[in-house]
């Protein structure tokens, strides 16, 4: 036994007790012949007092930051109490100590407010993990994990492990593949999700399944996307969409209550995909603030203003209380929408002044009455600023969606500690992939069309109209989960694969096991999967998932601490019967 | 909502209630105009009565086995009650029904006692999973998972996810590697265990870590070994071996109590590795029965019997009550030890007859008095049978260990529902790998030598004598867990790598991150990992781990249901910049 107590549990009640602690040296402060050391472990910090009698020995063992120390001593009431920490009323008057391990000076300070840059902290991740801020993130992740498990256990869901070495069935994102020494020239794939397995488990009668499980995508990496990520993966049998929405709304409420102490008394709002696109310009609306998109196309056309007349879409938002934006601020916004990521040619504004007058950047083409009509359509009040974009429909809607978020940010309407979840439902079944010139599944190929639209599956010209029993749960402008009611009939599944351009042979080769399973008594079923990393980040009030992963990869998919991926021996390649192509 | 109740919950209290159930048709029995159907779901079986008035409609919808059915009807008391199932007092008088999905006749019967062979059941695993026997295995696995988590949570262990895409560091078993499109010609490896990560987490101060996690080994497959398997992986800081043994003995007791209702009041026995080898011939003794190995080498040599005189080891067991074994039985045992897997040249026996006389297969060389001395040494009683093997030390000990288990089996001493756990401690640090002509780590290269034997690390000729703070937990002759106190000093870890024949450059290349971490304040730590699949199998009274895995691979590492591994497209290979070698 290296310790009798942790560094987080001693208080005034323990005064006079002899104790042994072990931990890391956080700080060393010398005052003449007396030395104070803050000793840190996972549970807290305790002040150690090395008095005069011990002093010679302490001098012989110079204590640096992050040294690992074991001390024995007596719990003593402190004269100078620290009310900020639970152990702040006491200190340990040290009678004996031992340096268990020395430490070099860390490359950055182990503090909330560290001086270490991103790359350095990734390289020494084991030191970064010591910082209190990072530890709190991992503790939150662990608590969310437990909270989710407890809820799902209580609802009769069974945790069933599905395999990691599966079959490559490229459709959508790219698979990571794994060569096999035992079966040369053949490859396993790592799962992008346990989708087909959880469906098979429903066919097997397991009724309610869950797993908190790693998934893998060999995708081009973007900021905050990891090649391996964790899902809360769930599936239920004999359910309709309503059952799933209710169950997982309950789960989210349970987690919010346990993790953040927030109680939602009302049902989460629901919005159709069409509504989300119309009013927010995207399918994951941030509803912490209003500022809805207003379509002005019909109102503004035909007045001789070429930009509007040639536009597929003219769309506006009303920014509350921004009528006094300066020229400089407006120029800045204009530059903002012209950036390549947004891609607009310009921004039109209308100031609805507090005195009721209106002033716009298009006064040459529109008189005050006309501008007033726009303002009315946007439900703007005196003091507001209308921002108007015009152009190709898809790009313009997307740009306005971004501008809305940007204005929300500038107006301080996106508080990280306010949570506004909602369901977005009735997603389109398909979307058209321009590059590939084919229809692809919006969610995945196992999603069922709405029953009353099954007929449209026979007419490719109407694929775009088909809606699915598919749903996302969106939190503060981020999709945290999504799912669907699945196809459970072989003929419909075959029709779906065909619609996606898969030949019957290809479908049989890739998904023969699932098609086969549907012939032996498949029940109606559906499910959902949550992005666990992202859910934890949002619950922690952060947007960076990397902060909530113990050992994340960088933006190039590298683990800079391990230096992985890396080259492997020729002998390993030979055994695997593969060769490198330079 | 497809149902108001499950097929497992209705009883006599529900009589008169209108209910809706959904599930699978287990059996259909017709009696004139009445049809009985047993409807099955995850929760149980309920009898349905299709009466006369419904009959025409039922005739139009021929119900086969495994059809998916939704029925509405009234809960009615049964005349012919079935006391074997919880719902046996009632049946549902069906008023309405719907076939939700038809089913082809399954390729084998969905019954405990199925007619399906192994390969067929693997191919249609989703049907095999419907069988009650298999479902109970997965339910047990889920219950063990929860039980372990609850225990570890209550002891302050944190579940922390470690990465799956790591660095290849071949040492011991082979890594599966994963080519990377983003980093061409470089490979990730899948973890054989999270060993180094859990050690880094200790360096980071997380104090108590656990994970129930998939691990991967690209090993030659043997019966009942899977390329992917699950570990309960744990690590603790500031502990000595005793702390770890106590903690995880408590965990095992908790699990036995919750899963099997078995209470262990006594501490688990502990045996040194030396004792295990001496008395049981292996390091995972089955102590459900005694029949210890007795070394007769000193006693039997020099009597002119060449087999003994030339042997490195002469070893015996006394099989209780077997003195009346027939010639045929003894011949059979002789053949058994001569099989290539055992590899002995012959078997010597001594019958200690119930009348006190002795009769042996070596009467020519040894008189009754001498045989009596052997019997005494083996603590044999009249009625027992001594079995003696002689030859090269290692092979002979191993053979006797196997023969002991075989005799235990024949004598019915290996009851699957009796549980005899024990700790085997003080493992050797190294073992000599004859093929490679070098020392390898018995447990792994991170295991610490016993502190008082650190000096021996400087003398390769004494490597064989060094014992480690390493321990296994053994249950009924199977290792279910193992671990060690780890090295936490850079210089000792470097010495260890050097002892294993690793150059400083190689050590730095493979494990630089760990050596580095040890310089920044690494605490003393140690841990353990349990084979979760095997633990579940043993708790379920089975020896086959495959029965306790939802989607196992076969003995060639193939998933015959998915047909994985399989070939991949040339386009995928091109993207990965690898080529196949034929």
TrEMBL record, chains A, B:
Q: Where does L-aspartate bind?
A: 171, 217, 443, 486
Subcellular localization(s) per the UniProt record? Cytoplasm
Tell me the function of this protein. Catalyzes the attachment of L-aspartate to tRNA(Asp) in a two-step reaction: L-aspartate is first activated by ATP to form Asp-AMP and then transferred to the acceptor end of tRNA(Asp).
Provide the species name: Chitinophaga japonensis
**Gene name for this UniProt entry:** aspS
Name listed for the protein in its UniProt record: Aspartate--tRNA ligase
Matching entries from InterPro entries are given as:
Aa-tRNA-synt_II, aa-tRNA-synth_II, aa-tRNA-synth_II/BPL/LPL, Asp-tRNA-ligase_1, Asp-tRNA-ligase_1_N, Asp/Asn-tRNA-synth_IIb, AspRS_core, GAD-like_sf
**What does the sequence similarity comment in the record state about its family?**
Belongs to the class-II aminoacyl-tRNA synthetase family. Type 1 subfamily.
Q: Which GO terms describe its biological process?
A: aspartyl-tRNA aminoacylation
Q: Which residues form a coiled coil?
A: none
């Amino acid at each position: 036994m290296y310790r009798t107590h942790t560094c987080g549990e001693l208080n005034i009640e323990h005064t006079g007790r002899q104790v042994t602690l072990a931990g890391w040296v956080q700080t060393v402060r010398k005052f003449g012949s007396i030395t104070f050391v803050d000793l840190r472990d996972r549970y807290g910090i305790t002040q150690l007092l090395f008095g005069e009698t011990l002093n010679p020995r302490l001098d012989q063992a110079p204590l640096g930051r992050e040294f690992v120390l074991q001390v024995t001593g007596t719990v003593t009431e402190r004269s100078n109490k620290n009310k900020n920490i639970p152990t702040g009323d006491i200190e340990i008057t040290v009678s004996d100590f031992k340096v268990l391990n020395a430490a070099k000076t860390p490359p950055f300070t182990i503090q909330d407010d560290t001086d270490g840059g991103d790359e350095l902290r990734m390289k020494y991740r084991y030191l970064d993990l010591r910082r209190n801020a990072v530890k709190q993130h991992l503790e939150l992740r662990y608590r969310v994990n437990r909270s989710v498990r407890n809820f799902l256990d209580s609802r009769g869901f069974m945790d069933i492990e599905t395999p990691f070495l599966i079959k490559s069935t490229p459709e959508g994102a790219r698979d990571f593949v794994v060569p096999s020494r035992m079966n040369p020239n053949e490859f396993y794939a790592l799962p992008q999700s346990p989708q087909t397995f959880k469906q098979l488990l429903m066919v097997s009668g397991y009724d309610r399944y869950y797993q908190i499980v790693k998934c893998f995508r060999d995708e081009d990496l973007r900021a905050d996307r990891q090649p391996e990520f964790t899902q809360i993966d769930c599936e239920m049998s004999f359910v309709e969409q309503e059952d799933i929405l209710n169950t997982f709304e309950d789960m989210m409420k349970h987690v919010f209550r346990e993790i953040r102490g927030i109680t939602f008394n009302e049902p989460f709002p629901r919005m159709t995909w069409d509504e989300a696109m119309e009013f927010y310009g995207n399918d994951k609306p941030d509803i912490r603030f209003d500022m809805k998109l207003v379509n002005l196309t019909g109102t503004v056309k035909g007045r001789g203003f070429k930009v509007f007349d040639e536009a597929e879409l003219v769309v506006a938002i009303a920014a509350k209380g921004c009528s006094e934006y300066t020229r400089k601020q407006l120029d800045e916004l204009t530059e903002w929408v012209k950036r390549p990521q947004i891609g607009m040619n310009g921004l039109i504004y209308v100031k609805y002044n507090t005195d009721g007058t209106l002033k716009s950047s298009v006064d040459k083409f529109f008189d005050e009455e006309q501008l007033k009509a726009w303002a009315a359509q946007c439900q703007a009040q005196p003091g507001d600023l209308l921002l108007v974009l015009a152009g190709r429909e898809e790009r313009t809607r997307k740009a306005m969606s971004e501008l809305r978020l940007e204005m929300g940010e500038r107006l301080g309407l996106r508080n990280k500690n306010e949570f506004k979840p909602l369901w977005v439902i009735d997603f389109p079944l398909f979307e058209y992939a321009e590059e590939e010139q084919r229809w692809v599944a919006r969610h995945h190929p196992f999603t069922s069309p709405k029953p009353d639209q099954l007929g449209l599956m026979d007419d490719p010209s109407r694929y775009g109209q088909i809606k699915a029993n598919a749903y996302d749960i969106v939190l503060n402008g981020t999709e945290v989960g999504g799912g669907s009611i699945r196809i459970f009939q072989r003929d419909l599944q075959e029709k779906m694969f065909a619609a996606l351009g898969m030949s019957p042979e290809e479908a049989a080769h890739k998904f023969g096991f699932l098609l086969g399973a549907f012939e032996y008594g498949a029940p109606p079923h559906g499910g959902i999967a949550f992005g666990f990393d992202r859910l934890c980040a949002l619950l922690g009030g952060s947007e960076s998932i990397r902060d909530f992963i113990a050992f994340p990869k960088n933006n190039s998919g590298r683990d800079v601490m391990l230096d992985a991926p890396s080259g492997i021996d020729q002998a390993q390649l030979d055994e695997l019967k593969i060769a490198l192509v330079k």
